[in-house]
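## retry 2 of 3
previous attempt timed out at serialization; input unchanged, resubmitting
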Amino acid sequence: MRQQDRLPLILERLAEHGSVSVVDLSAELQASPASIRRDLQVLEEQQLLKRTHGGAMAAEVIYELPMRYRGGRSQEEKRRIAQAAVRLVDASVHSVGFNGGTTITELARLLSTGRALKVVTNALNIAADLSVRPAIDLVVTGGGVRPESYELVGPIADRTLADISLDLVFLGVDGIDAEAGISTHDEIEARTDHCLMRSTRRVVVLADGSKIGHRAFSRIAQIGEVHMLITDAGADGAELDRIRAAGVEVTVA
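## retry succeeded, writing output
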C-alpha cells in the first residue's frame, strides 16, 4: 500500500479511537513499523496529530480532514451518487453551479454533455478539470482560498454569486439533518454555499451515507431550502424518512 493511501486510513483510525499505535497500524496496513513512523511524521508536520512513544494521539483541536485525504473514502458510493446526479443535467438544463468536495468533484468528472453548458463553481480543482473542455463555458467566482476544500469563499465569491441565475445547483455538504438542515465545518464557506443556493430555484444536495443525520459546525441553510438529496444505501433509513417528510425528494443511488 502506498503512503498516500495509508495516510487517510491512519487519520480515520485516529478519529475513531483518539490514538493509534505503530504496532497495530503496521499489522492492519501491512507496512513496516519504519514506514508507519514516517507516515506519522508526515501527518505531524501538517499538524494533524501528535506523535507519542509507540504511536500518535489526536491533535488538541478538532480538525476537518483536508480534501486530499478524503478522496479515497467511500469512493464507490460517491461515484454512484455522482452517476445519479449527472442524469439530472438533461437538455432542459443550460447552466449549473457546483461548490466543492469529493462527491461534487466526481460529478464534475462525469459531466460530458456534448452541448454548450455554462458552469459556475468556486472550487479550484473542479475549475481546473473543466477548463479544458470546449463545450463548457466556465465561470469561476474568485475569493479567498480555503485549503481544506480547494474552495474560493468570502465576500468576493458572495458578490459574484449574487449577480447570477442558474438552472440547477449541486451542493456538497458535511452534514444533512431534518431539523438542523445542511451544514459544513466552516462558517465562511457556509455563507458562500448559501449564496450559491440563492442563485437557483433547484438545489440538489449530494451526500454519502456518513453525512445523513450529521450536524457540522455551521449551518448552510434550513432543510426547506433543499429540493433533492442524492445519497447511498448506507444512509440511516429513519433519518431519510424524516428528510422526506420535510419535503425533500430523496434518491438512493
